[in-house]
Design goal:
The complex is a heterodimer of chains A (619) and B (262). Chain A folds into four domains: 4-185, 2-Layer Sandwich (Beta-Lactamase); 235-338, Helix Hairpins, CATH 1.10.287; 342-421 and 545-616, Heat Shock Protein 90 (2-Layer Sandwich), CATH 3.30.565.10; 440-541, no CATH class. In chain A, 45% of the residues lie in helices and 21% in strands. Chain A has helices spanning 4-59, 63-74, 109-115, 126-129, 153-156, 180-231, 246-305, 310-338, 349-366, 386-404, 538-543, 584-594, and strands at residues 79-86, 91-94, 130-133, 142-150, 169-178, 345-347, 369-375, 382-384, 409-420, 440-446, 449-458, 461-467, 477-478, 489-491, 500-505, 512-517, 523-527, 535-537, 546-555, 598-603, 609-616. In chain A, a hairpin with a 2-residue loop joins strand 11 and strand 12. Chain A is rod-shaped, with a radius of gyration of 53 Å. Chain B has 262 residues and is of the alpha/beta class. Chain B has two domains: 2-131, 3-Layer(aba) Sandwich (Rossmann fold); 138-256, OB fold (Dihydrolipoamide Acetyltransferase, E2P) (Beta Barrel). Chain B is built from eight helices and 17 strands. In chain B, helix 3 (62-71) links the parallel strand 5 and strand 6. Classes of the chains: A alpha+beta (619), B alpha/beta (262). The A-B interface holds A 282, 285-298, 300-301, 304-305, 320, 323-324, 326-327, 331, 334, 341, 343, 345, 387 and B 12, 14-15, 17-19, 21-22, 25, 56, 83-86, 103-109, 111, 187, 189, 216, 245.
Chain lengths: 619, 262
């Protein structure tokens, strides 16, 4: 009984059994009582009929006729026995001839009612006149009814002078009916009711079982499986939703939770990796710098002292030069680990590309790479950190050269300006509620960027809605399946301040609209409907399409396998083995992101790759 | 007490030996110690004109050694060396009283430059002491409210938010006679505690000038020739106008020039 569905079904069956049982018990009893009352009434009527029928004969003292009458009536089916007793208990007439003349004991069931008291009762209610009894244990039940025969004036004055006037009760008419037929009817009724109750309970159990299985068992089983998967470390497990009731909403929230967990773990993992790298770089710097110091000091010292031999001096100078190069590499490693803040100034992107090419040219010659520049010389200026951007282009060129390998190939560098609409190019980096709480949730990332988190309440149910931080990109994430319907209310997850757009509805779908402030950049309205996702950001929209500088680095190298593309900008995802630090593209991504730009890659295995960097141009 | 020239303290024997070789080749009597404790033991026995100490060492580190030296009342100038060349280490060295800071790895000439400058400093201090004057009397006095990194470079905030940067007179006097000054181009970046200019001595050595703060060079003083800089290092002889990256915290770290005491 570990399954909640089974328990629920069992509880329902037990309840149904009890209620049905009680109902059956009372209905059987009521039916039995009403049948018995009917028989009683019938017996009484019969008894009265017999009495009336024989009254006249009794007056005339026609004993043979009375005997004849009683014997004949007594042969009727269902009538067990009819007899008349005098006051002394002697049976005067009976449908069973053998009984006549016998005296009945006052303790007998037919006499007991009146003769139990010291003075015999003279009048009895109908109910008290009847009795149900079983002469022998194996015989069917019988219903007997006694009918006292009272002294009438005509009796006392009759010619026979049989009865004195003072006598009140002259005798008793005792009619006994067999209950065999009635008992059979009662039993049939009982069986019928029990069968009906049983079928009803069975049907109820079946219906409840099926519904519980559908509404409880299936989602609980899905949730159970999901929790086991997550406990086992599979944070990518998603429960396929099949409804919108509370359990499926719970499943949807569970999905959001695991996704959040996975992202948090990824974040932690990434920052942990970067922190380890920082420690590693610092440690390496210290450890390498000591031996390098000895090499550099000795070699430069020797080079100075070996002035007499130009050849030796030359060789020593090579050692000095190369050691100084090592020094620069270590220094740049430390600089990477520190991740300096960009120092932006108005710069021409083409000039930066030219400088990057000049730095990377040695490696290109080594790999027999032909470099083609297709630069748009009329490119607008941009405000950026020239050194960091140079690093970006060097990384991309060196990566391209590595992808080409020693066989040779072509790298094409192109630049152009283009205008893009705000949708998909502007990131919501800050968002606040009216009480200035930040709505940005660093833990939940959509497209790698922290999402905007709102609380949605719909018909008493509440959940979080994550808005895609890229303006106009509609990959929002919902914890509430129906969020966005007209009655949804939005609020700050921290202080519950309302974030509704004063009753405005979405112009596309009529759904509920949320509204929050982007500090310094006005209000942003949007529709949370899963299928709509409409947004309006007046301040950004009013600027219109924006000018961007696009730089493409295209190579004819080995290309990138599809499954590696999502990992490409992760630290330490390098496939270069000992050649690289595994940081190049992660740092590149960080720099471009710091400049509010985007970097994307298109590639197919064996067909080269194209990295596209887009940076906002100076308006 | 024996008179010696240079004490090199470094827990890396190869580095200490290399440094000794370079100094000995210049005719300097040099001792090495592989820990701060061993160095202090030598300082108790001999008198040195200059101490060159590593920062990161097991046991007492370079800063601890610096404290012990001044606790002993020694005025011997100290040059700090480190393989862990961070801005913090450089600035902390200068604030702790070191006269210069040199990141590892260095060439023989780079080491020689800081050693020569340190010895010259000591010579000037001794000369002044012999005359009964304070050492500061020999240098152009610091203008009030300038901020300095050791006695190497100075910085003063301008009204427009930029910072004027120059070289301190003690640095020039100890590096000099100055043949030329190598400056960065406008637009270059400078980092606090890292080299921002090179002073060429008449001995053919290059003396690295550490920047007092980080930022981007907005303007370079075209008139910063050795003659002018030597004559008026704090006004006409400024080197750069810098747009500082973090003016607040970085300027806070520098020493305010209140008293002209060396």
């Amino acid at each position: 009984m570990k399954k909640i569905g089974l328990r629920l079904t069992f509880a329902v069956i037990v309840t149904a059994l009890i209620t049905k049982g009680v109902f059956a018990f009372f209905s059987i009893r009521a039916e039995r009582d009403s049948l018995l009352a009917e028989v009683e009434r019938h017996a009484d009527q019969l008894s009265e009929t017999v009495k009336l029928d024989t009254e006249y004969d009794m007056m005339l003292n026609h004993r043979d006729r009375i005997r004849e009458s009683i014997t004949r009536i007594g042969t009727q089916p269902g009538i067990q026995r009819i007899r008349v007793m005098n006051k002394g208990g002697s049976i005067i007439y009976s449908s069973e001839a053998s009984e006549v003349g016998k005296t009945v004991d006052k303790k007998a069931e037919s006499c007991y009612k009146c003769h139990s008291a010291a003075n015999p009762l003279e009048r009895l209610e109908k109910k008290e006149r009847s009795r149900v009894f079983r002469p022998r244990p194996e015989s069917p039940r019988l219903l007997g009814i006694i009918n006292p025969i009272y002294n009438a004036p005509s009796c006392a004055t009759a010619a026979c002078h049989e009865h004195p006037r003072s006598q009140v009760v002259l005798g008793v008419l005792d009619v006994t009916l067999s209950l065999a037929e009635i008992d059979r009817a009662i039993r049939r009724g009982q069986v019928r009711i029990i069968i009906f109750a049983g079928v009803a309970v069975l049907a109820l159990s079946l219906i409840v079982g099926v519904l519980v299985r559908r509404w409880v068992d299936v989602p609980v089983k899905a949730l159970l499986k999901a929790t086991q998967e997550v406990a086992g470390g599979n944070l990518g497990y998603v429960i396929g939703s099949r409804g919108d009731d509370e359990l499926w909403t719970l499943a949807a929230s569970f999905n959001v939770m695991t996704q959040k967990l996975a992202e948090a773990r990824m974040q932690l993992f990434q920052s942990d990796k970067l922190a380890s790298l920082g420690r590693l770089a610092a440690g390496v710097a210290h450890e390498i710098n000591n031996p390098l110091t000895a090499v550099l000091t000795y070699s430069s010292f020797l080079a100075k002292r070996s002035q007499g031999s130009p050849e030796t001096t030359e060789d020593l100078n090579v050692i000095v030069r190369e050691t100084i190069r090592c020094r620069e590499i270590v220094k740049s490693l430390l600089d990477f680990a520190r991740q300096s803040v960009p120092r932006k100034a108005e710069t021409g992107v083409n000039e930066i590309i030219d400088r990057a090419v000049a730095v990377a040219v040695n490696q290109l010659n080594l790999n027999h790479v032909q470099l083609v520049k297709e630069l748009d010389r009329a490119l607008p200026k941009a405000v950026l950190d020239a050194n960091q951007l140079q690093q970006v282009f060097i990384n991309l060129i060196v990566n391209a050269a590595d992808a080409i390998g020693p066989g040779g190939g072509v790298i094409t560098l192109s630049s152009r300006s283009l205008t893009l609409s705000a949708a998909g190019t502007v990131q919501i980096k800050k968002a606040v509620c009216p009480k200035r709480h930040s709505l940005i949730d660093e833990q939940v990332r959509i497209g790698g960027k922290p999402a905007v988190c709102l609380k949605a309440v719909q018909e008493g149910r509440e959940a979080l809605v994550y808005v895609d931080p890229m303006y106009g990109v509609r990959t929002h994430r919902h914890g509430l399946p129906g969020a966005g319907a007209a009655k949804t209310q939005f609020s700050c997850p921290q202080c519950q301040s309302p974030l509704d757009a004063q009753g405005r509805a979405c112009p596309d779908c009529g759904g509920a609209v949320y509204s929050f402030e982007v500090p310094g950049k006005g209000m942003l309205d949007g529709c949370a409907n899963r299928d709509c996702g409409w947004q309006r950001w007046a301040e950004v929209d009013s600027v219109g399409p924006r000018l961007f500088i696009e730089v493409k680095v295209r190579d004819t190298g080995c290309g990138i396998p599809k499954e590696r593309i999502p990992l490409l900008f992760e630290p330490f995802s390098s496939t270069k083995g000992q050649q690289g630090t595994g940081l190049g593209l992660a740092v590149t991504w960080g720099i471009v992101d710091n400049h509010d730009g985007t970097i994307t890659v298109e590639s197919s295995e064996g067909a080269g790759a194209t990295f596209t960097v887009r940076l906002p141009a100076k308006p | 007490m024996k008179k010696r020239d240079v004490l090199v303290v470094d827990d890396e024997a190869a580095v200490a030996d290399a440094a000794r070789k370079v100094c000995s080749a210049e005719g300097l009597v040099t001792d090495t110690a592989q820990s701060a404790a061993a160095g202090l033991a030598l300082l108790d026995r001999n008198s040195y004109r200059l101490i060159v100490s590593d920062i990161m060492m097991a046991g007492t580190d370079g800063f601890g050694l610096l404290i012990q030296v001044s606790a002993r009342g020694l005025l011997t100038p100290v040059v700090m060396v480190t393989g862990f060349a961070t801005v913090q280490n450089a600035v902390r060295s200068m604030l702790s009283g070191a006269i210069d800071f040199i990141p590892k790895p260095f060439t023989a000439d780079e080491l020689l430059a800081v050693v020569r400058r340190g010895l010259k400093y000591e010579t000037l201090r001794c000369e002044a002491a012999a005359k009964g004057a304070s050492a500061s009397a020999m240098f152009v006095p610091y203008p009030r409210l300038y901020r300095r990194l050791g006695h190497v470079s100075w910085a003063v905030p301008e009204r427009d938010g930029s910072v004027r940067v120059g070289v301190c007179d003690p640095f020039l006097k100890t590096a000099g006679p100055v043949q030329g000054i190598d400056l960065l181009a406008a637009g270059s970046d400078v980092v606090q505690g890292s080299r921002c200019a090179a002073v060429l001595g008449s001995d053919g050595l290059t003396y690295s000038l550490l920047s007092p703060l980080s930022g981007r060079v907005l303007d370079v003083n075209a008139g910063a020739v050795p003659a002018l800089v030597g004559k008026d290092p704090y006004e006409q002889g400024w080197l750069y106008k810098v747009l500082p990256t973090e003016p607040g915290p970085e300027l806070e770290q520098l020493t305010i020039c209140k008293f002209d005491i060396l």
